[in-house]
Structures are given as C-alpha cells and as structure tokens.
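User: Fold this; tokens only.

Assistant: Input:
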Amino acid sequence: MRDTRRADLLARSLTAYHARDFELSANLAKQLLLLDEDDPDAHMLLGSLYGRQEQYSQAINQFFRALETAPENPEAYNNIGVMYRSLGQLDRAQEALEKASKIAPTNAGVWYNLGNVLKQLGQLQEAQMAYLRCLELNPGNALAHNNLGTIYEAQGDLAQAEASYRKGLESDPNNPTLKFNLGLIYQKREDLPQARQLFEAALRYRPSWTPGINNLAVTLQKLGESEQAQELLESLVTEKPENAEALNNLGILLMEKGDLEGAQAQFEKAIGQNPRYARAVLNLDRLFQKQGRLAESVDVLARYSLLDPQQSEVRLQLGKLRLLQNSPEKAEEDLLAVLNQQPDNLEALRTLGNLYLQTKRAYLVEKVSERIRRLDPENVDLQLDLALYHAGEGDTGAATDAVQKYLQVRPKDLNARLLLARLLHQMGKTKEALKRLEALNKEDPRNTAVLTALGQIFRETGNQKASLEVADTLLALQGQPSDENLDAMMDTIDFYEQAANNLTDEVRATWEHNLRKLAQAPQENVHLEEVQPEEMMVEEPAWMTAGDVDQQPSLLDLGDLNPAVVLAEEEETVKIYDTDEIIPQFFEDEEEEKLEADLSQVQAPAPAPSPAPTPPSATSPPTPPSYSQP
C-alpha cells in the first residue's frame, strides 16, 4: 500500500511539474518525504524546483540528500554541477560533473554540461573534447554544435566554426543563435550581404534580441545604409532605453551625419546606463577632439579612470592627451600604469618614448626604443624622433646613429635620407652627403626637396656654378622664370638654411605634430560596435520537456553589457570574443525580459556543504530527474 501511495504521489508531482504547477509539485514532493525522508526521487524533484526558483544552494542540498541514499546517482552529480556553475563556483561544478561522467560515461548531457564549465574556465581544448564526446553520443545536439563552434572561433578556425554552426542548423534549422553566430562569421569575413541575411533570419525567430538588432545595424552601416541602421537603433532605444550598446551605436551614426550635439547626448546616456562602458567614453573623447574640446576630453577620461583605473585603453588615451597638453608628470603616471598591466603595449611604449624626448631624458628613450624593437623590429618611428632630438641638441653624431638605425628598417624613407645627408654635411662629410643626395636626385629628378638640399650644400661650400644649375632646374620645374618663382625658390633654400641653424624649433614643431597625430582619435571608417551575445549560465533539465526529447528549450541571454569593441576599422585588432553558448535554462519565455533586467543583481547564496556520500547501494535507484541536455 505504501509503495502504491509513493508511486501515485511521484507521478502526480511530476505531472504537476510538467504542467508548470510548481507549487502543487512541491507540495506533493514534500508528502513523499513524509512517507520516507530519504526518498531520492523526492529530493531530486525538490532540488529541481529550488533550481527553477534560483535557490541554488537549497537545490544543491537536496541533490546531496539524494546521494545519501543513492551515492552512485550520476544525475544528482550532474545537477549539482549545474547548480554550482549557476553560483559561479566553477571548480566545484567541474568536480561534480567529472564524477557524473565517470559513473555514466555514455550520458551525452553530462558531457555537454562539463563542456560548458570547462569552456567557462578557459580550458578550451578540454571543453572541445567534452563537446565532441557529447556529439558522438548525440549527434543531433544543436547546442553542443553551437558551443563547439564558438571554441573553433576562439581558436581562429572560422571554417570549422562555420561547419559546426551549419551542423547545428541541420538539427534545429530555426535556431536564432546558430544563425546569429554564423552571421558573425560572415561579418568577420566582410561578406556583409550574407551576414545581413543571417541576422535578419535570427531576428525573425527572436524579434527583440538586442545583439541581433545591434549587429544588423552594424552590417547595414558598413553596407552604406546608415538611415536604415539608425531607424533600427532608434526603435531599439525606444523599446530598451537602458541598452548602452544601442545608445553608443546611435551616437556613432549621429556623429557620422554631423549631428554632434545629438551624438554627445547618446554617448552620455550610454555612460549613464553603464558608467564602466569604455567604448562610449572613448567615442565621447573622439567627439570632443573633433570639436577641439581637449580639456573636456581629458576630464571625461580622467573621471572614467578613477572609476576603473585598470581599463588600459582609456588610461592610454588619457596619457596621450595629457602629454599633448604639456602635463608630462601625469601623462607618465598614466602610461606607466598601462605598461604595468600590458608590458608589451607598443602604443604606450611609443608615447612614453615621446614623453622622455619632451622631458629631455634621451637615455630612457634608448631603453624604450630597444624594447619596442625587441617586440616589433619593424617599429622604428621612435628612432627618427630620437634623431631629430639629438640634432636639435647639437649632438650630430648621436643623431646620425639614430637615423641610420631607422634607415636600416626603412631604407626608402625620403625624409630620413634627407636628414642623414644634412647631418653628414654638418659633420664635415660633405662628399658622402652629396653622394647620397645625388643618388636621391637620380631616383627622382623632379623632387624639389632633394634639389633644394643639393642647392643649399653647394651654396654653403661656395660651389656657385653647381648652385646656379640647381636653381635653373628648380625654376624649370616651377615654370617660366619670374620674380615670383625666383623668390619662391630662394625662400625654399632660406627655409632649409634656417632649419639647419634652428633645428630645435623644427624638432619642437615635429613633436607637436607627432603628439597630436598620436593622440587624435580616428575620424574615418568609424563603425558601430559589434555586440556579442551575453553569457548564459543556467541549464534546463531534459525531463522538464514533458517527455518530448525533440522539443527545444527556451533561450535566455544573461551577463556582460560591456564587451570589448573597436572604434574604427583601421584600429581593429584580432580579438577573440566568445560568441556565446546557448544553454537550456529553467525559465519560460514570458519570464525572460524580467530576468534579463534582474539577474545581474542576484546575490549568490553561500555554497552548500558537501556531505560525504554513503557507500554504493546494492540496488539501483529509480531514474531521477536530470539536468542533462537531450
């Protein structure tokens, strides 16, 4: 009679769960425990209910209670792993799931969940093997294909990533995340029409998906359809005014149209929604620089750096602007802070080298230059600056050494070759200087800068005949002789003569130009921010699908609102972003919007204790509820 009562209660509790009457399901499960407080199925069911309510620690306790009676229950360990992952306790999650995989090595869902944890831990090779094992056992698992594809993408293998996404779509042709991720592949390849089709397809099945709308707008902008992109973003910020990425992207489009006031308002709204949103801060800096509002640029960058001093991109830009505004001490502090985090940051090293030149610390410039050359032998711009510095200080020998090091890498640079010729002449090596200038003249007989340098040396050495011949050539290049042309030619020669005598002024002007160029944010080819899907943290139990193993779980994106992005195409470096895994989760579609707003504020409860399981039972327990993927 007792067994009949137990079977009836368990069946009714499961039926209530599938009907989403969770209160009734919990009440019936508790009645099961009144019959037997150690009933493993009742504890598994209650654990699932607690998990659905985000009471993860209570769920873990219930699953451990199930293990007291059935210590070799793989589904209990599997579900414990899922709960620990939901709490962010990835090491414990990995341990539990590895136990489950040893007990049930043919359970595809366990390998899928283990892959998710390993992937989140950054153990991509191990995660890849777990997903492959899952797919060996269940080739139709679209979500495993998706997550495997993100690993291939992280490894830079776009072809394999594309193949994985397409295999996933064979199992689930309408899956919006697989379409979106495939669209990102085409976006990276600059196949924009195909990317557009895929983003639009994803949005047909998930119309309000923020990453999909943002990336479709990115693609439309790159295709030159800025008006349509703006309409999409305006609609998105009307519906979701808290979306920082959409606000930032709308600001970029308005700035592109010349509406700087409107763009500023959007960037400031984005920062208001997410004060740690570095990209909006850098875009606001770019807007201020476009208007010559450098003091306001420094102010916004400095305020952000106080909030997040570890954000190196903002701190670097702040250092460059402070150097430009003659605040070398503060600039040095910013640049060294960046280099403490990123010792190989070439841009920070290059700017620091200019700072040491400006503050007359040439010995430090040499050290910075050596480090730059070790990191990138082709990066020798600082050597040319160093040559100008030494020339301005009257140290012709050091200037010559520096420009020769520069020319070893860039032997065709005209300005450096002219500078070397001038320096050789100053050192008394006039024959060598003339030989170099004559070689330049032979390469390009119409180059007036070379002719002017030749004429200057001939004039200084008293070779009037050669000087007049050069003057005739210059006049022929500039047109028919006239007082105006002759004055222009003589002005050019006088300029070089003055530059030779007052090279310090030239160096200062060169530095100012270089520093402004270095600090200036890019103005061309600015593209919208590409938004990655947010990380999803919660799995949905397979048995929750009311026995329909082919039914796809609802999808929910959670997590970070501040992905790394680029300001301009020419700045873009190859960065690996996790294009996200889509993982089954507890919640229903109608709950998603509320959860997207609230989940980031959920405080994780204290971890549950891990009681030692009792020795294995001689009898196998009934199959309990499971969080494994079908």
